[in-house]
């Protein structure tokens, strides 16, 4: 492994590299990952980045992650990762270090990951070194693409505003004959299991990465907001009137991940538009 040289950073654009040092605290039974630095090319996506570490043990797996740092050619974290791990499990355990980026719409993506055996031979404890990050086979997702939207609630007017901004990679799991068709988004407002109202955006050209920038407004009393949800269905439409569902997602407290956190952020910040990317499901 080589030490980092600023003059060589430009030649490392092919793949990001991660600097790390592994150590083990026998008294606390903890794996320590310190001296974390990442070298990335200046055209990598994401405004901020962080390092996530995970290791499997007898009870499952444990994870830890650094704080967000502004992504630069060389990004340095002051803190390290602490992962509980019994000493007798070290020889057979594998540590995965993942460099992730996060943009201003809270869209998290993987820049690369590094898998390390903890047998003390392939990766000596106490030795700082650089490793080249490999692109995860799991990302980008082979799902139905992603959609970017903002939501906000106006308490004085009892109005829920949903702005459909754009979508990305809608072709990933679709048949070739659907390419080039018009695409729209059907938005359904629900209270618990009851459908209150549904509206649909105008059709947008170019199905793979369509742009709408269209606001949809719903009248919704404040006391119904927490138990309500918004369902989105992206539709490909032909001139004859037929339509095909390309993917869907549902925002609300019933959901998990970004679909729940988006709704929670809206509840905590009335009158403020909160924008996030969401994975579409088939």
UniProtKB/TrEMBL annotation:
Keywords assigned = Membrane, Repeat, Transmembrane, Transmembrane helix
Instruction: Spell out the Pfam families in the cross-references.
Output: C2
One GO biological-process annotation of the entry reads: synaptic vesicle endocytosis
- Highest taxon of the source? Eukaryota
Task: Tell me the SUPFAM superfamilies matching this sequence.
Answer: C2 domain (Calcium/lipid-binding domain, CaLB) (SSF49562)
Recorded hits in InterPro entries, A to Z, give:
C2_dom, C2_domain_sf
UniProt keyword Repeat, yes or no: yes
The keyword Transmembrane appears for this protein:
yes
Job of this protein: May be involved in transport vesicle docking to the plasma membrane.
Could you describe the subunit structure of this protein? Interacts with NRXN1.
Similarity comment: Belongs to the synaptotagmin family.
Protein's name according to its UniProt entry: Synaptotagmin-13
């Amino acid at each position: 492994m080589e030490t980092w040289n600023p003059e060589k950073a430009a030649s490392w654009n092919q793949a990001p590299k991660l600097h790390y040092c592994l150590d083990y605290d026998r008294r606390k039974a903890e794996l320590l990952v310190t001296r974390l630095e990442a070298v990335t090319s200046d055209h990598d996506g994401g405004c901020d980045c962080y390092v996530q570490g995970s290791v499997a043990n007898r009870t499952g797996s444990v994870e830890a992650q650094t704080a967000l740092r502004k992504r630069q050619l060389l990004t340095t974290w002051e803190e390290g990762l602490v992962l509980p791990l019994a000493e007798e499990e070290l020889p057979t355990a594998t540590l995965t270090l993942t460099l992730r980026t996060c943009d201003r719409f809270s869209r998290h993506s993987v820049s690369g990951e590094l898998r390390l055996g903890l047998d003390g031979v392939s990766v000596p404890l106490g030795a700082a070194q650089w490793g080249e990050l490999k692109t995860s086979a799991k990302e980008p997702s082979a799902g139905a693409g992603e959609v970017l939207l903002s939501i906000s609630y106006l308490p004085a007017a009892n109005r829920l505003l949903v702005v459909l901004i754009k979508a990305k990679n809608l072709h990933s799991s679709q048949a070739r004959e659907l390419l080039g068709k018009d695409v729209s988004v059907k938005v359904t407002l629900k209270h618990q299991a009851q459908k209150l109202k549904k509206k649909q955006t105008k059709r947008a050209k170019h199905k793979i990465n369509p742009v709408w920038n269209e606001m949809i407004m719903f009248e919704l009393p404040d006391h119904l907001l927490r138990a309500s949800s918004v369902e989105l269905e992206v539709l490909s439409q032909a001139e004859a009137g037929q339509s095909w569902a390309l993917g869907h997602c549902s925002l609300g407290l019933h959901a998990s991940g970004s679909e729940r956190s988006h709704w929670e952020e809206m509840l905590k910040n009335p009158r403020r538009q909160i924008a996030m990317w969401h994975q579409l499901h088939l």
